[in-house]
UniProtKB/TrEMBL annotation:
Pfam families: Peptidase_S10. InterPro entries: AB_hydrolase_fold (IPR029058), Peptidase_S10 (IPR001563). Keywords: Carboxypeptidase, Glycoprotein, Hydrolase, Protease, Signal. Residues 1-25 are annotated as: Disordered. It comes from Filimonas zeae. This is Carboxypeptidase. Residues 1-14 have a biased composition (Low complexity). Gene3D superfamilies: alpha/beta hydrolase (3.40.50.1820). One of its GO terms (biological process) is proteolysis. The keyword Protease applies. The keyword Signal applies. GO terms for molecular function: serine-type carboxypeptidase activity.
Length: 499
């Protein structure tokens, strides 16, 4: 069905249950550029009943001539018992990859429905969902956005060039335009606005903060980076080699591979010691390269081994720079296990113990096992979005243009230009893909003069990339989001200016 036919169709008949179609959703594997199915629900959050509507639908991406070139799928949760939306925060949520939809945070973290997993985040059967008592829907409305080729989002036809969507800056540009369309259609221009991104989604929202501000004159109150990438901030050479050691230490501590005196310490008491060694000793030593004398090299290798759980011989063989892949393979090699990349609490089993990297990501297979059935059940059965389109947990977005990634600097500029804009960074100590100490380093480099630090905050959790999958961290992280949102909204009448 074409755009004109869709527009002429108007409002479709009511669907089963307490729902209605604002625009039709056709069966079959046909992209619907415009669609919206609205259902009504209720969830109890922190002991309070919260009625809400959920809209599952799609809105277009426009070309320069105003013609749709893609449809972007979204789910929008709006609290029903709030009459005045001018003071009601709107959170715009992205995940990463690039190439994954917003399913992870939607049914794993901040949304009103939560997938069935155990208290540490491992899959359980039967697959399905339950209410999320920690959702931030009590304090903010939320829209989860699936970039093109993820979830149900698609180009309108195969001849639309991927370069329109698949690159650091192309991604930011078209999604900023889409956000403008969404905010306008939903009448949310007056609302305090927040962006939250996870993994590559942090690259996306860091760039979006400045793009929305400069190209759409849309000013934000907050940006939240969950397990952030490097954001285009250079750290090649000795920095790249050194900054991963605190993550190694956290993982070795979790698996009880450290010397007894370190193992008996609390994790948060141990890590500052490792961070200090990394900054004050390891980076200078690695900068010396081959000029480092034998005695000094041996001393550094001994400390790396002590903090990482990797044998000193292996450290020496790798010139004091053990790669992530080798670490994941080596740490539990004697026990016959590998450790996970995105969450080092997970164990895997390889075909052979030899080798320099794991055969697969143990944590990712576990997550796909629980998330994929849950989101397909949820969208079709609870949100009544009926389509035969395949829901892409990982979509084809390659080749991806990574050139001119200035997103960390873009975010710094946005914060400096907008006195209302605050930043929150959330990291899991056991995340080896976007490790916590690199996240700290990025935040430090975004504020080299230290003049913005009153609006920048970092938090750590005892889990991995998706730290919210651990029950204890789900509660704590959502509460921290709730506090951040409230504290980032100025008092009524307060001007945006530097004193």
């Amino acid at each position: 069905m074409g755009v004109a036919a869709l527009a002429a169709a108007g409002t479709a008949r009511a669907q089963e249950g307490n729902s209605k179609n604002e625009m039709p959703v056709s069966p079959g594997r046909i992209l619907q550029v415009y669609s919206a199915v609205v259902t009504r629900h209720e969830v109890t959050i922190k002991g309070q009943k919260v009625p809400y509507t959920a809209t599952a639908g799609s809105l277009p991406v426009w070309d320069e001539d105003g013609r749709p070139v893609a449809g972007v799928f979204y789910t929008y949760y709006e609290r029903e018992d709030i009459r005045d939306k001018s003071g009601r925060p709107l959170v715009i949520s992205f995940n990463g990859g690039p190439g994954t939809p917003s399913v992870w945070m939607e049914i794993g973290y901040t949304g009103p429905r939560l997938l069935n997993i155990d208290d540490e985040g491992y899959p359980v059967q039967p697959f399905g969902l339950r209410d999320n008592p920690h959702s931030i829907l009590d304090v903010a409305d939320i829209v989860y956005v699936d970039p093109v080729n993820t979830g149900y989002s698609r180009p309108v036809h195969k001849d639309v060039p991927g370069s329109r969507f698949f690159g650091v800056n192309a991604d930011i540009k078209y999604l900023a335009e889409w956000i403008n369309t969404f905010v306008t259609r939903k009448n949310r221009w007056a609302s305090p606005k927040f962006l939250i991104g996870e993994s590559y989604g942090t690259t996306r929202v860091s760039g979006l903060a400045l793009e929305l501000q400069n190209a759409h004159w849309m000013y934000l109150n907050g940006v939240i980076l969950v397990s952030p990438t490097e954001l285009g901030i250079d750290r090649n050479g000795p920095l790249d080699a050194a900054l991963k050691l605190p993550y190694f230490a956290a993982t070795a501590w979790y698996h009880k591979k450290l010397p007894a005196d370190l193992q008996q310490k609390e994790l948060t008491a141990l890590l500052p010691e490792v961070e200090q060694f990394t900054i004050q000793e390891l980076i200078p030593a690695l900068s010396r390269g081959g000029s480092l004398d034998v005695q000094a090299r041996n001393a550094i290798a001994g400390k790396i081994a002590r903090y990482s759980g990797i044998a000193e011989k292996v450290v020496q063989e790798n010139n004091l720079n053990v790669s992530f892949n080798l670490f994941w393979k080596e740490l539990l090699r004697e026990q016959g296990f590998t450790v996970g990349r995105l969450d080092s609490r997970y164990k895997g089993i390889d075909k052979q113990n030899g080798g320099s990297e794991p055969d697969y990501n143990a944590e990712l297979t576990a997550w796909l096992q629980s998330f994929t059935p849950a989101i397909n059940i949820y969208l079709r059965e609870e949100l009544k979005y009926k389509t035969d389109l395949k829901y892409n947990m990982f979509g084809k977005v390659w080749p991806w243009d990574n050139q001119n990634n200035q997103t960390g600097e873009n975010l710094r500029q946005a914060i400096a230009q907008n006195p209302f804009l605050h930043l929150l960074v959330q990291s899991g100590y056991y995340d080896g893909a976007c490790d916590y100490f690199n996240a700290k380093y990025s935040m430090w480099q975004m504020d080299p003069g230290g003049r913005l630090k009153g609006r920048l905050k970092w938090e750590g959790y005892r889990s991995g990339h998706m730290m919210y999958l651990r029950k204890e961290d789900l509660a704590a992280a959502n509460e921290n989001l709730r506090t951040f949102i409230r504290e980032s909204i100025p008092a009524k009448g307060q001007p945006a200016k530097y004193e």
